[in-house]
Amino acid sequence: MPITKMHCCVDISSARNTISKHFDRFIRSKFIDEFGDNEKLFLEFVLGHYVDEGVGELDSTKLPQLLELKYGSPRDAVNVLGDPGKIREMFIGFQRLLYAKGQAA
Description:
The protein is mainly alpha-helical. Helix content is 70%, strand content 0%. The chain has five helices and no strands. Residues 1-12 have low confidence and may be disordered.
């Protein structure tokens, strides 16, 4: 059976639903409380890009671009979120929580 435009739309819709479920699970998770207010704002920003653009937005190589989009410059991001190591740890750590099995759905 040939792949049609409709099949692609269904696949994209299905992927967005999966992403949205992960997003909702993370936002409702008690673990979001582990992050400070500024961290939460950044993570919500990242998750918005994840929902809109897909899982590629969670690649660690995207972190500098996401920080620049949100804060304008790496220096401004560090002023808001703390040292670069802490920012990277937060970015990677929240993904473990995002995909954790057994969280409240």
